Structures are given as C-alpha cells and as structure tokens.
Amino acid sequence: MNKTAAESVAWRSTIAFCVLTAFCEGIDLQAAGVAAAGIGAEFKPTSDQFGTFFSASTFGLFFGALIGGRLADSVGRKKVLVASVALFGLFSLLTSFAWSIPSLVITRALTGLGLGGALPMILALVAETNDAKQQAGRVAMVYAATPFGGALISLLSLLMAGTQWRAMFAVGGILPLILAPIMAFALPESNAFQRIRDAATSASIPGLAGMPKSGSFIAIFTAGRALRTIFLWTSFFLGLLLLYLLLNWLPTLLTSDGLSRTQAAGAQIGFNIGGALAAILMGHLINGRLKNWAVVVTFLALPILLVTLAKSPAQLAIICGIVFLLGCAVVAAQAFLYAMAPAAYPTSIRGVGVGAAVAMGRIGSIVGPKLGGMLKAAGHSPSHVLMDLLPIVVAGSICALLLAWEVRRAKS
C-alpha cells in the first residue's frame, strides 16, 4: 500500500471511530432524560433532586473536558479518547445498578468525566484529518451521530416500560465498553499531533516555527486569540444551557402540557432526528457558498421556534412539527460551534483550546437542567419556562454570529 492510500485508510478509520464514539455519547447523554419517568416512579425525587441528577453528568463533563483537553496535547488524542470511552461506558453500566438518588448522582458524575474527555478528542481528531478545507464540515457531520444516538435511546424508551429504565443505562455502558478495546488496537493517532510531538525543536520542521507551546492554556488568549476565545466560550455556555435543558426537561414539559408519555417520547425522537439531519446538512453547507446563509438562518430560527413552541396549542401534530424544527435549529447551531472550536486554534494548543471551550459549555449544561428544575419548582408553566429562555437564546445567537465573523477575519 502506498503512502497516499495508507493515509486515506487512516483518516477514514479515524472518521468512522469518531462517528461511533459520538453515537455512544448521544446514547449516554440522553439516557437520564428518557429514564426520568421510571426513576421518578421508583425513587420519588423532588424537582430540585431531579435537576441535580440531570446536572451530575455535565458536572463531570466539565472536569473531563478540561483534563482530557490538556492531556491530549501531551500524551496524544488516541490515548485520551480510548480511556474516556472506557470510563463513560463503565460508569454508565454501573448506573443501572444504582439504589438511590445519591448513588445515581455519583455514577452519572463519573460517567460525565469520561464523556467530557471524549468529546474534545473527537473534534481534534476529525479536525486534524488530511484535508484542512473540509475540516469544519467533517466536524459538524461527525457531531450529527450524537443526536442519532439520542434518537435510539428515545426509541428504546418507547419499547420499554418505565420500570425498565435501568436497561437504558446498561445499553449506554455496554456499547462503549465494546468499542474502547477495538479503538485501542485500530484507531490511528493524529498525524498533526505526531508531527508536533516528534519535532526536536519548533524550528526543525517547516511550518512549526512560532507555534505556541504545546498544551499552553495561556496561549489561547494570546496572539489575537482572546476575542474569539471569549465569543467561543460564551456561545458554548449559552448554547449548551439551552440544549441540555431541552434534552432533559422537554419530555417532562410536554407531558405537563397534556401529552402522554409515549407522545412526549415520540416528540423527543423527532427533536433528535431533526437535529441529526440538520447537523449533516450544516456540515455539507459550511464548506460551500451558502455557509453564511446557513449560519444566519439557523441562529435567527432559534428564538422564533422557541416562541412558537411556547405559544402553540397542545395538539400532537403541531407540537411534534415544531419540536422537530427546533431540534434542527438547536443541534445545527451546536454543530456549527463544534466546527468552529478546532478551527480557532493551531495544532499545538488545539486540545487545550477545544477542551476549555467544551468545559465552558459544560457549565451551561450544569446550569440548564438546574434552571429547568428551579423554574418548574417555582410553578412556571411549560410555556413560561420556554419564554424564560428567550433572552438566553438571543444572546447566544449574537455571540455565535460574532464568533463566525472573528474566526473568518483571523483566517483572512
């Protein structure tokens, strides 16, 4: 096999493993939301306890993203990814054996530690495949596997009784535990990372001179990168606050609004499928002439669809249609942010830069479910909860559009 053919096999293998990892992440990330009804029936938690449970995995995600991103620039993308996948698989499986709300919270937090370490590695590995021009589009399309995983676990919740909620976490644990050893054997390391690691000095390989120190956290704020880092962090925080509040609370909000558990789960499947399809479309458009239009339409649609869902009548067809479109907008927006994150930093600090951005998003992931619990506990109706999110959505859209402008300006 010649060098070009070997490189082609390597990057295709990398993309395939990253897609599978993102799919497994989607299952684990949404397992808590779809299992909520069964957990509620068994343990009778308060709204605040539910909020804590929903936020537990994202609390672990915060630390996992920071630690994993920092380690990736030192020991490599592959080692961190394999360890992270094994970690979230193990603790997701252990969640199925939980005996109380505190045990659920602990196992979900440790699951989140692995999830947080895996996501920046997916983004970095995909971004460092051989064709830089297709980088952003590939990242967005690989991210599309995450909502497909969420759709699968939502579908399983329809086929299972609420009392079988433990099986959902078992599925979320067994699949990554099978995947991790296969990746340890077959996943290639990033060529871009290897070039940095193997260089005796920064000037020994053309193009590496002047590269910021590997893994330097301070470097993501220097050399004109401070503004894009601030926009990236703010966009991630507000975007993931919205996404995780909806992922965890949307079924509960819809059942409170008059839908049955089965109907709410069906709407949640629509949210995920719409999001996955929109992420694939965003990945296709983001490298083409319609990139600017795709980004603007996505971030303008977000507040419009949120208000429309808040004001819509409790009719299944109407709500499912709006939820589908809302999933398209929310996940397409997130896919765009994930595509921008690795593009904002050079190879030597890409792990720490993406990890820090994902960690900031995880703070939003923690705040989102807790905010939903607080609003519900305060007696807000489902429509009021959605309207309460409108300022957050508007601010996040503005920051994301400024981020797109800043990254484009920096590359020009």
Secondary-structure blueprint:
Blueprint: H1 3-34, H2 36-43, H3 47-75, H4 77-95, H5 101-127, H6 135-143, H7 145-159, H8 165-186, H9 191-198, H10 226-256, H11 261-285, H12 291-311, H13 316-343, H14 350-377, H15 382-388, H16 390-411
Helix pairs in contact: 1-5, 1-7, 1-8, 1-10, 3-4, 3-5, 3-14, 4-5, 4-8, 5-6, 5-14, 6-11, 6-13, 7-11, 10-11, 10-13, 10-14, 10-16, 11-13, 12-13, 12-15, 12-16, 13-16
User: What would you call the structural class?
Assistant: mainly alpha
Number of domains: 1
Beta-strand fraction estimate: under 5%
CATH class placement: Mainly Alpha
CATH superfamily: MFS general substrate transporter like domains
Strand elements, count: 0
Radius of gyration: 20 Å
The residue-averaged pLDDT reads: 80
In DSSP terms, counting alpha (H) and pi (I) runs of 4 or more, how many helices? 16
Could you say what the CATH topology is called?
A: Growth Hormone, Chain: A
Give descriptors for this structure.
80% helix; mainly alpha; globular; single chain; Growth Hormone, Chain: A; 412 residues
Description:
There is one protein chain. The protein is mainly alpha-helical and 412 residues long. The chain has a single domain, classed as Growth Hormone, Chain: A, CATH 1.20.1250. Helix content is 80%, strand content 0%. The chain contains 16 helices and no strands. α5 (101-127) packs antiparallel against α6 and α11 (261-285) runs parallel beside α13.
